């Protein structure tokens, strides 16, 4: 990773910033700094149109190889794009799961027919995806999935079971599902990775209403839902390999954009502290300084983990294993700092644009150390995969 920008990098940064200044206007101006975690229900139809606006400008899938419809940008240029997108207030991406997760997975593991069918629609911002991993009894312990699938006489795959915490399933066209295809198999054996259209008989989507009133999460029930015979990624029984490849991609270059969003939240906290006088409190000042230092640590570790690694075909080093654990704890602490800075002002739900975003962030950040793998699971991954320590003993049976 080259930390010293070249003149070409600086010119590219200016190009990205200029495009965003001239396109994140008009009807799209309302989307600035909206649609992120805890705010994902905001204007989904408008955000889908924004995806197509990005596509028209060539700003979707910027890191994908050109032969698959991407721009083939270098890691350095991808970092620039994501930083400038977040700096300009680019909204939460409706196409994130397609562009950032299933698309790269199909590039790595998919058949040519699957790549031809799905990748162009993701690039164009016309089809949107949901992730069917977690279940009521298989959240952080993904290998415990109980959703079943079996192949029928015509070759299609029938799916029976339930997924939960499925972000924006009600706004998505497709879902990728990890299901158990070998009866009697346990753990990470006997799983298959399927692609299913959500608009079909045998699929019911139920919203999960949260305390804040939103329902971006859903339960998805499969009762005889079907995937085409050629919509299995990898061979039957190889679902765990594909699923783990997808999770490696999840810690990719878009993390730099996430950090810019964090920087914006920290700036809002500093503005609030100056406004209400808490910036004069030495303890608050020290916590703000600590948060700023944490952001810098996060950035440099992200650049380190994104440096190409010959040992991983998806390009991430083992340093990526610490990223989720670090940012989720940092962000939870930032939420606590936000509420302490707001004081009594933050104790009542407000529509004040100087208060509401910090309240949303503080509430949602409580879940950061749980979703996408709890702290305990993250520490196990660091120990076992990163440090080569023995696996934690599992209960017999």
Radius of gyration (Å): 21 Å
Class based on secondary structure composition and strand pairing: alpha+beta
Distance between the termini: 46 Å
How is the biggest beta sheet arranged? 4 strands, mixed
Strand content: 5-15%
CATH superfamily of the largest domain: Butyryl-CoA Dehydrogenase, subunit A, domain 3
- Which spans have pLDDT < 50 for at least 5 consecutive residues? 310-315
Q: In the CATH scheme, what's the topology name of the largest domain?
A: Butyryl-CoA Dehydrogenase, subunit A, domain 3
The CATH level-2 architecture of the largest domain is identified as Up-down Bundle
**Count of alpha and pi helical runs:** 11
Could you give the count of β-strands? 8
Summarize the helix and strand pattern as letters: HHHHHEEEEEEEEHHHHHH
**CATH class (first level) name of the largest domain:** Mainly Alpha
Mean pLDDT: 89
| Molecular shape | globular
Q: How many domains is the backbone divided into?
A: 3
- Spatial strand sequence of the major β-sheet: 1-4-5-8
Percent helix among the residues?
40-55%
Keywords: FAD, Flavoprotein, Oxidoreductase
Protein name: Acyl-CoA dehydrogenase family protein
Organism: Sinimarinibacterium thermocellulolyticum
Cofactor: FAD
């Amino acid at each position: 990773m080259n930390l010293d920008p070249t003149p070409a990098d600086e010119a590219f940064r200016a190009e990205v910033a200029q495009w965003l200044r001239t396109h994140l206007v008009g009807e799209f101006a309302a989307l600035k700094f909206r649609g992120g975690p805890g705010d994902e229900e905001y204007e989904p139809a408008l955000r889908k149109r924004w995806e197509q606006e990005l596509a028209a400008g060539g700003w979707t899938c910027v890191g994908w190889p050109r032969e698959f419809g991407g721009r083939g940008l270098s890691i350095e240029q991808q970092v620039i794009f994501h930083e400038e997108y977040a700096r300009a207030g680019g909204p939460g991406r409706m196409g994130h799961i397609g562009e950032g997760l299933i698309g790269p997975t199909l590039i790595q593991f998919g058949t040519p027919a699957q790549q031809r069918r799905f990748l162009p629609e993701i690039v164009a911002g016309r089809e949107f995806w949901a992730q069917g991993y977690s279940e009521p009894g298989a959240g952080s312990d993904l290998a415990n999935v109980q959703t079943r699938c079996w192949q029928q006489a015509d070759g299609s795959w029938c799916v029976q079971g339930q997924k939960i915490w499925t972000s924006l399933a009600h706004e998505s066209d497709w879902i990728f599902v990890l299901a158990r295809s070998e009866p009697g198999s346990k753990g990470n054996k006997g799983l298959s990775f399927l692609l299913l259209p959500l608009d079909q008989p045998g699929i019911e989507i139920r919203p999960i209403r949260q305390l804040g009133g939103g329902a971006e999460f859903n339960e998805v029930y499969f009762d005889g839902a079907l995937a085409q015979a050629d919509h299995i990624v990898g061979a039957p029984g190889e679902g765990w390999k594909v699923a783990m490849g997808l999770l490696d991609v999840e810690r990719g270059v878009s993390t730099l954009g996430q950090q810019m969003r964090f920087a914006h939240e920290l700036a809002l906290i500093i503005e609030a502290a100056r406004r209400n006088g808490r910036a004069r409190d030495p303890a608050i000042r020290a916590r703000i300084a600590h948060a700023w230092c944490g952001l810098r640590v996060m950035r440099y570790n992200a650049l380190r983990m994104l440096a190409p690694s010959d040992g991983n075909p998806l390009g991430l080093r083992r340093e990526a294993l610490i990223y989720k654990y670090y940012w989720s704890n940092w962000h939870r602490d930032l939420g606590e700092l936000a509420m302490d800075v707001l004081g009594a002002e933050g104790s009542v739900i407000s529509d004040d644009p100087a208060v509401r975003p910090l309240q949303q962030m503080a509430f949602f950040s409580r879940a950061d150390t749980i979703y996408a793998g709890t702290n305990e699971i993250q520490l196990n991954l660091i120990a076992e995969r990163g440090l080569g320590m023995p696996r934690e003993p599992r209960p017999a049976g």
